[in-house]
Amino acid sequence: MCNLRCLIVITLLALSPLSAFAHHGSSGQFDTSQTFVVSGSITRVRLVNPHSYVYFDVKDDNNGVTNMRCELQSGSLLKRRGWTTELFEIGSHISILGSPDRKDPTTCYMNEITFENGITASRDSTFTDKGTIVSDTKSKDTQSSKATRQTTLSDGSPNINGNWAMVRERGAPPGAGGNSPIILTEAGKAAVLDAASSQNPRFHCEPTNIIMDWWFDQMVNHIEQTHTKIELTYGFMNLQRTIYLDGTSMPDDYQPSRAGFSTGKWTGDTLVVTTTGFDEGWIMAPLEGERRERPGDAKAKGERPPRPDADRPPRPDGARGRMGPPSPAKNSSQLTITERFTLNEDKTVLTREYTLVDPVNLEQPITGSDKVTFTEDSYEPYACDDLTTERTQNTPQNNHHTDTKLSASTAKSLNWLEESGLGLTVSSTQWGYPIALTLHAIGMGILVGVSLMLLIRVLGFAADIPIIAMAPYWRIAQGGFVINLLSGIALFSGNATELYVNWAFRIKLLLVFIGLGLTWWLVKLCMKPATSTAPKQTKIAALTLIVWVAAIIAGRLIGYWS
User: Fold this and answer.
1) What's the rounded Cα separation, in Å, for the pair 484 and 504?
2) What is d(CA 457, CA 7) in angstroms, rounded to the nearest whole number?
3) I need a labelling partner for 55 at 20 to 30 A (CA). Which of 320, 340, 455, 562 fits?
4) What pLDDT sits at residue 205?
5) What's the burial of 494, exposed, middle or buried (CB within 10 Å: 0-12/13-18/19+)?
6) What does CATH list as the number for 30-135?
7) What pTM was estimated for this model as a whole?
8) Are 335 and 58 in contact (CB under 8 A)?
9) 396-427: per-residue pLDDT in tens?
């Protein structure tokens, strides 16, 4: 004989497999040796990290519309330089000089952008509050670096407290200078034999290493210095390091990490830091595109497969770029990095010289240097929302939206929702999306779980249980609906434009409200003292059960059906 407790357990077991499916599931990406010009009307902009994108509709000769997107700098860097979403007015016309994506014909790398008002900006341009271009692109950081500051601490050591960021000279390549070649041992070559861009930590919003991340994307780094230790908080991916100056040694139970364990000492005005305790990771993470040849490489460079650009308009010849991304290199747990930090004469430029020694993976040490400049710009936690594979995960046809074309007002509203505090919290913070998704799953489990208990009972299972005994649980189901509704609004805000045109999402939303309405109707019919259920109630229960199952299936298809 099955009682109410038995029915609850069976329902939870039935829901468990559904819950398992409740989760939606500048690099070598671009051929910078080629350039082309493309124009269109703005439909959306995402100023996020590690790369921002502007989306726009391009018309072809047959009046067909293709939605393209071009990659900009990181959102944090653009905002520091005065770029705002107001610059990209929805529906306004833009023209972009860009470089093509090697795989996706609807994605490009923005070199220059011309707005409808005639202003032309490069990737490194800085805007004033009035939306005009600052003529001296270094003025903001230069003025900040001239600020009067204490040059030494009470113990006589140079003062490196404050915020620091790399200032990239116009036309200069990104990154540091003076790097020596990377020559791998046989073990080092074997470690990267199956390297693929999908393994790149940046594409998973994770730090790469303590060298590259210090200057990557010119983020603002923060240093807190005392007599016993120095805390470094990287602006890129929020990597945190502690440099112990008091002789603290690595604990016996230390767990290897990307930051490693750092000890340092002042030698005159030079801070010498030695870091060990690294986990196995990337010195140079794999990127898309062809690899450069390394000195000593035996294999000849292969040809890159043809790019799918049949639908792309003709491009003018552009200047030859570099030979694609460098070849990947991994470090072993035996990696040791030595850094030497020094300040310039006016104490506003912090130079770092570094040496990487890895007896397992490297034939010879890697040496290099970089510089960061003192700035009054504030440090901001790195909110990562990587959109690199947003389109390559789907077929190119999904980006032709003649049947789901958005009006300018709708696109503007959706964009506003994504850029709202709620939308950015969900899409661009470490815990926003997981918390919202967890609450959504809990709400769904409560609402659908209680509903299925009622439906199974009406269909004849556990007939000895009075249906009216389930009345209190319906109130709990209503609470689950509220949780589901609020968390669903949050999830929608984080990706409003994509979800709005997603037919699986639309179908799911319709089915949920149909299922809720049918269940409510059934509750009114059944929550009365009675010994049996009417045929009408049984038919409604069967229909409602089908609707709820279909809603769950539609929800799982959202991530696959754009």
Assistant:
1) 17
2) 8
3) 320
4) 85
5) buried
6) 2.40.50.140
7) 0.53
8) no
9) 334 444 344 566 677 778 878 877 888 878 87
